[in-house]
TrEMBL record:
Keywords: DNA-binding, Transcription, Transcription regulation. Residues 41-60 bind DNA. Residues 18-78 form the HTH tetR-type domain. This is TetR/AcrR family transcriptional regulator.
């Protein structure tokens, strides 16, 4: 894949421009999920989108540009962290979302992760997206402190807790390619909550 600068088309264009962008990005998601990054081509995306390939080349330049924009588009979705009334419930719900995205076939999430290893701009865009998602999810820890589930006098590193809670999903489903375990989202959440309550993710140190 050819890398491009991190510049992307206008993030919220209107009218025909918005329709073309939506068609092309939908095509990128479908092509990437079905054929992986190896099979993602400008021509294939243009054909699936029903858009002249010159338009695709002019707006996105190459496959790297398409990947960056499709990741940026994910960040534009009005996603909100779960709010179940407990930290364990919130993390379980979050893990269930992650698990579903990883086990569906074809999995766009897995294909996009793989593609980011072949495009530096896409990798940077994915890092930006995940950084934003972690920041959004810090509210789960804030609410847990307010409810008394986590110690208020010993601040919890929210990002470390979130990584610990979600990492088992990626380890099992992406690295080990294990079968979906419906108990894993809750089990991983429970372990992370117990560790957090014991001060394992305290900013004050070990």
């Amino acid at each position: 894949m050819t890398d491009t600068p991190d510049a992307t088309p206008d993030r919220r264009p209107g009218g025909r421009t918005a329709r073309v962008r939506a068609q092309v990005l939908d095509a990128v998601r479908a092509e990437l999920a079905e054929h992986g990054h190896e099979g993602l081509t400008m021509e294939g995306v243009a054909t699936r989108a029903g858009v002249h390939r010159a338009t695709v080349y002019r707006r996105w330049r190459d496959v790297g540009g398409l990947l960056v924009d499709v990741i940026d588009a994910a960040g534009e979705i009005d996603w909100q962290p779960p709010d179940t009334g407990s930290l364990r419930g919130d993390l379980t719900a979050l893990n269930q979302e992650i698990q579903q995205s990883l086990v569906e076939r074809p999995s766009f999430a897995v294909a996009l992760m793989a593609a980011s290893f072949h495009s530096a701009p896409a990798a940077r865009a994915q890092t930006r997206l995940w950084t934003d998602r972690y920041a959004q999810c810090e509210v789960l820890v804030e609410r847990a402190v307010e409810r008394g589930e986590l110690p208020a006098g010993r601040p919890t590193d929210a990002r470390s807790l979130l990584i610990a809670a979600t990492a088992p999903l990626y380890h099992e489903l992406v690295l080990l390619r294990a079968e979906r375990d419906p108990r894993l989202p809750e089990r991983a959440a429970r372990a992370a909550v117990l560790a957090a309550a014991a001060g394992a993710f305290s900013d004050a140190g070990s």
